[in-house]
Write a structure and sequence with these properties.
Keywords: Oxidoreductase. This is SDR family NAD(P)-dependent oxidoreductase. It comes from Nonomuraea rosea. InterPro entries: NAD(P)-bd_dom_sf, SDR_fam. This protein is an alpha/beta fold. The protein has one domain: NAD(P)-binding Rossmann-like Domain (Rossmann fold). It is 50% helix and 14% strand. It has nine helices and nine strands. The strands form two sheets. Strands 3-2-1-4-5-6-9 form a seven-stranded parallel β-sheet, sandwiched between helices. α1 runs parallel beside α2, α1 crosses α7 and α3 packs parallel to α4. The longest helix has 29 residues.
């Protein structure tokens, strides 16, 4: 098993302000890597970078960017052009439960940019850099069950399925260049996304695992040159044994409940939205 630090002195982490992205940043700083931290929240990134610098003596660079907008990936790539990046953690993503036909097309395009196009653009740019130097590592964060289809989140699940397929192919394609690629497919990880999506924590099939554990497993899978890793032993075994149709039904039930929960939350927030 290779050491994560052997990829190079700097790592780029997207979606670094919270959840799995923040956990990746914490693990990498503890391993001695300097960090390019990317997300929309400047204050949270600055606070995280300063905290990790104090704890581990590492350098950091904050890139405030909305990766759901066209051209934003190019801005991040440019911001990291002058440092020796050897590792890319392409983690940023989002989702919005609901029926596809009820959602504005502009919103769907924006989320597709974040959930798929940005991963492609970052992999293309940093993958070329890594291949030219003869070594590098890439972790793409997808989602468990995306390949089976996710009712009431069909669009975002489809984008995540693209990321999983992209990473699986590049794992083979880039191996000869010295670039390792792993897809992390979390399904039962405790992050703020669960509340954002309106999901019921009690409805998950197995106990939620900490984001730190998921990130740690993702880095270990990359070091072992695995193409795909599902964090959590129980959910990983279930993913191997349970047919896709079961995941589709379960995810459809959970997402359907999330849609109703979000609608109730919105109704409460606007006081019933009564009109006179």
């Amino acid at each position: 098993m290779i050491q994560i630090s052997s990829y190079g002195p700097w790592a780029v982490v997207t979606g670094a302000s919270s959840g799995i992205g923040r956990a990746f940043a914490e693990h990498l700083a503890a391993a001695g890597l300097d960090l390019v931290l990317a997300a929309r929240s400047t204050d949270r990134l600055e606070a995280l970078g300063a905290e990790l610098s104090r704890a581990h003596g590492t350098a950091y660079r904050v890139v405030s960017v909305d990766l759901g907008t066209p051209g934003s990936a190019a801005a991040l790539i440019k911001a990291a052009a002058d440092v020796d990046v050897g590792l890319l953690i392409s983690n940023a993503g989002t989702g919005q439960p609901g029926k596809l036909l009820d959602q504005p097309l502009a919103d769907l395009h924006r989320r597709f940019t974040l959930n798929a196009v940005t991963h492609l653009e970052l992999v293309h740019a940093f993958g070329r850099r890594f291949a030219a130097r003869g070594r590098g590592g890439i972790v793409l964060v997808s989602a468990l069950g995306a390949g089976a289809g996710v009712p009431y989140m069909a669009h975002d699940g489809g984008a995540k399925a693209y990321v999983q397929s992209l990473g699986a192919a590049l794992h083979h394609e880039l191996a000869a260049t010295g670039v390792d690629v792993t897809v992390l497919a979390p399904g039962n990880v405790d992050t703020p996304v669960i509340d954002h999506l309106g999901l019921d924590r009690a409805a998950f099939p197995v106990r939620l695992m900490p984001a730190a554990a998921a990130a740690r497993e993702g880095l270990a899978a990359l070091a072992r040159r695995r193409a795909l890793h599902v964090p959590g032993r129980t959910i990983r075994l279930a993913n191997r044994l349970v047919p896709a149709s079961w995941w589709r039904r379960m995810n459809g039930r959970m997402m359907g409940q999330a849609v109703r929960r979000l609608a109730e939350r919105e109704l409460r927030s606007c006081g019933g939205c009564a009109t006179g």
